[in-house]
Amino acid sequence: MTSRIGLIGLLTVLFTSSPALAEVPYPTVDFQGEWVLSDDNGNIAHAEMHYSADQKKMRIKMQQQGMEMSSVRDMTSGEMLMWSNQMPGMAMRLPTPAGDEFDAEPTDEVKTIGSETCTIWKMKEVEACLTEENIPVQTSGMGFGASLENIERITQDAGLFSVPEGVTIRDMPMTMPGAAGIGKGLPF
After folding, report:
1. Which of 14, 83, 92, 186 is the Cys-Cys partner for 172 at CB 3.0 to 4.6 Å?
2. Cα within 13 Å of Cα(130), Cβ side
3. pLDDT tens per residue, range 77-120
């Protein structure tokens, strides 16, 4: 359960950013790809990611230990809704991290990861490597790492970024393990 909560926490903040010294680095193109997520305990998870530049919304879908989870995050408000096969008919609204957790600056360091060229952005305790279109190819820090593979820059269907019909949305209880720390210190 702890590793699942940790990976869920990472997913809640994959893109939220509000840099103090630079323009907000939201991706500027639609894309999809596979996130490969890992933590210091050797836990690895794969997630399908979709992003709409027009809507500034991200959708993540993953399966882990028999649980299917999906989430949609509104990048401008920070609101994230998550649902799973373990909570039929219900979605949880996760707490939004404070904006100052995401102050960032680009560096002069440029890397090539796979076929993508990206620039390192430094946050308080984390760094991310963003392409020219601000696609996060790699993030790391605070006991986690994530890389985006098989990136396809293609138009995304607007319907991907909505909660399924008939789903009741509830606020995530702050007493749930890990709820208070979800997203703390992570860049995206």
Report:
1. 92
2. 25
3. 888 999 999 888 999 998 776 555 556 789 999 999 999 999 99
The Cα angle at residue 134 between residues 162 and 159, in degrees rounded to 5: 15
Sequence-distant (≥ 6) Cβ neighbours of residue 105 within 8 angstroms: 19, 20, 21, 22, 121, 122
- Which amino acid is residue 181, in one-letter code? G
Tokens read off for 91: 């979605």
Listing from the earlier edge strand, what are the strands of the sheet with 31-39? 105-113, 116-122, 127-130, 136-141, 144-152, 31-39, 44-52, 57-64, 67-74, 80-84, 90-94, 168-171
Domain 2-99+143-177 has CATH 2.50.20: yes
- Which residue matches tokens 């879908």? 61
